[in-house]
Predict the structure of cyclic-guanylate-specific phosphodiesterase.
Amino acid sequence: MTPLPSLRRRLLLPLALIGVLLAGSAILLAHVAFSAHLHDQLLARARQLADSLGDAAETITDLDTLQRLVAAQGAAEGVELLVVIADSDPPRIIAATRLGWIGRSPMAVSELGELLDRHDAFDCHGSHGQALCYSAPQAMVIGSGDGDTGLTPGTVLVRIDRTALENNARHTTLALSASIALATLLLLLCSARLHRRRVFEPLNAIRLALEQRAAGARSTRAPVLYDDEIGHVADCLNGMLDRLDAQDEHLQRLARLYAALSETNQTIVRAREPEKLFSEICRITTDFGQLPLAWIGRVDARREYIVVSACHGPDSDYILAQAPIALDPDRPEGFGPPARALLSGQAQISNDTLTDPRTAPWHARARAFGIASTASFPIRSGGQTIAVLSLYARSAHFFDGDVVRLLTETTEDIGFALDNLLAEQARAEAETALRDSELRYRRLFEANPLPLWVYDRDSQTLLAANTAALETFGYGQDDWRQLTLHQLLPADESQSLAEALEHENADSETVWRLQRRDGSTLFAEVHSYPLGFEGRRARLLLIHDISARREAEAKLEFLANHDALTGLPNRVLLNDRLRQTINIAHRHGTRVGVLFLDLDRFKVVNDSLGHAVGDRLLQHVAQRLRSCLRAGDTVSRLGGDEFVVILNEIGEPEQAGRVAEKILAQIAQPLMLEERELHISLSLGIALFPDDGSDADTLLRHADLAMYLAKEAGRSDYRFFTADLNARALERLSFEGGLRAALEHGEFVLHYQPQVAIADGELIGFEALVRWQHPQLGLVPPNRFIPIAEDSGLIVALGEWVIEAACRQNRDWQRQGLPHVPIAVNLSAVQFRHRALLATVAGALAESGLAADCLELELTESILMQADRVTLDTVSYLKELGVQLSIDDFGTGYSSLGYLKRFPVDKLKIDQSFVRGLDAADDVIVTTIIGLAHNLGLGVIAEGVETAEQARLLLELGCGEAQGYHFGRPLPATEARGVLLHENERRQLSAPRLPLTRH
């Protein structure tokens, strides 16, 4: 290939073109100049001839003499024509080079016609071609020939042939053009040679150097041939190549060290023993980093010396031949990089070992082995420096900032690996059992071929399977060929896995859940390879059953997060669950309770009965704690006799107090162990999120402090963390305890509010309302204790008492001959869902002897809206008993009225919120409820009627029954009996019924 063809063409061709243009211009200019010069010469000669003839004509009077002069001058070379014309009347030729023209009139000579019409010089045609004609007026003495000698005007005509002169000029021009062309050619050749030597050859040399460099010749440099711009470019290029070589060497060094780091990380993952890990690290570092020596030294037991633990590299004798390196900083070797790195915990770099004073004890050996740079990096494990990694390089300044960072990261990974190895030792027994199990499995597995099958990627049909696959999945060969890949995968995974394999063109390794013919599943490690099979696009699947390994990993996972003795979550899982519970509570705006429990005097059990009995006691405690909690709560063993309970999504602090009391009561139950009856107790502290802390550590700490407060208070008790919460919780729990005592001591009483017909005031029934006759607080209204009773579950027992008491009281009034009117009793949702409700109602009716239609049960909309089978069966059974059913507070809870079709209720009770302050809007709502009841054939009654105007409006709207302060307040049984007596009298007398007296 011609060097730099494009550059030569682009430089030399324009240069040649310029030379040709310059030469042509010079030749053209020369030709123009010679042509002008020729014209000037001819014109000067013509003028000279004309002037000489004119002068002669002015002095010569003899025509012969003038003719001889014309003939003489006309004989000169190039002169074709000389004519002297006298302008006499008529004009005539008096002298001419052509004798036949003399004496003739010039007008008669056709050849003179062109000359007579013009004056001065002009081009004309001659005998031999182009000529120059010149016509000049001239005064002459020669007259008409009659002896007149005065001056007569005349004309001298001259015609000179140009051919000879032009031929001479052409020859001269050609000679000059040849000279210019030759000079131009020589100039171009000289310029081309100069360009070749000073431009093309240096550039070609640079190009060849770059091509050699591109071919891999790293030592090639561009020659600097001349001290000019191209030479400067070559010099700069060489400098750039030097820098690129240095950078390339640096990048290669980093690449090697990155590869070493990657290999180190893989080695760390596989490492099981520190010494083997150290040996591999040294080997990897020297092999990948191309270093002459790498060694790792560990501190001896007395921390006095660094002992070489692993070493690798061609210069291993450099360190192996030396005695252990002392750590004493007062000794020379104790001042060296390895010792200083180990003592200071910082990397020590010596990039000029032969002059570094720290490496003075090794200067001679370093010079002998060709060591120029050293670096020592501390290796930390367990919070302290236990070893040092030392590396050696043959070039100075090898360990720059990037290299040091990579090697520092390597030593940090080594320390991390050592920490993991120490941690792994804690699980050695479990891992040994697992390895034994896996070893037995592998031996059994290796004795049999792995299941293999091939399937068509387009149709998903199975094309081939080996015996192991048939046996594993329970299919025959004929059955197998009719299957598709989807039939071997569970329905929830088949589509996604098949699509993933369809779009994957490379080898893959994934875990699948596969399905046998009998419907059972197995977890398998599936290796997939694309291949062509019988002209089809197929994949080969290799199946490795890992079900046993998955189970073992699950067991290990369980052991890592649970207490081995009790099976409860350990501290790790506790912290994780507590953080999750706090996050959920934060989003939902609820509380989290943390209970810290500690057994009282557990050490006495261990010391007196032994640790085996103590362990069994802890197991029983764990079981009892589980029985006290909800499904979503967590109980954990921290260690020893300490337990922690997490109560998620609690509403009030008192809920945590109730759980604490339940736990205390459960733990206090006697326990038989080793034929001994043990009585145990525990102290319990309670902390609440967000009241007592916003994070897991704070809550655990505060609950622990509260537990110690409980121990200081005498044990077998609990305390809240804050005094304010503690006081409020104790107050509510005291109130709850009072409710239990009130049930036992008969402190509840019933008051009865009349229900009347609005039109005439006829008594149509009572609503039984419970009151608590508190020994200290007096008569407590239901809004203070009913919510507590519902939260604590006492509402069931309280509701049973209310139903039984109302039935007994009504039956007593009937036996006294008083009017038979129904008594309405409210049922709470908790009471309604309780399994004993039906037995309670049936038993109360049977025991009291009250007719079922004299008992009315008021249900809330929330009860009926559940609309499940249990609710429907319960309502149906109550209706079969004959009791009346009404819906209390109708219209306040739900907008769906579909339940009215499913449940056989008798009456709707308009909530007092619609009655109180009736206005246009409430008129619409009340009218709608009344119309709905009438259309469904149900009764309707309004509660909360306090004024006569409200009663009137209700009656106008179609509601005929009501209760409220306008007709009567809730009355004790004795006063309610008086109302019944008054009603009885009016009925007997058939007197007009008047509204009841307001109380």
Notes: Residues 26-170 form a domain with the Beta-Lactamase fold (CATH 3.30.450.20).
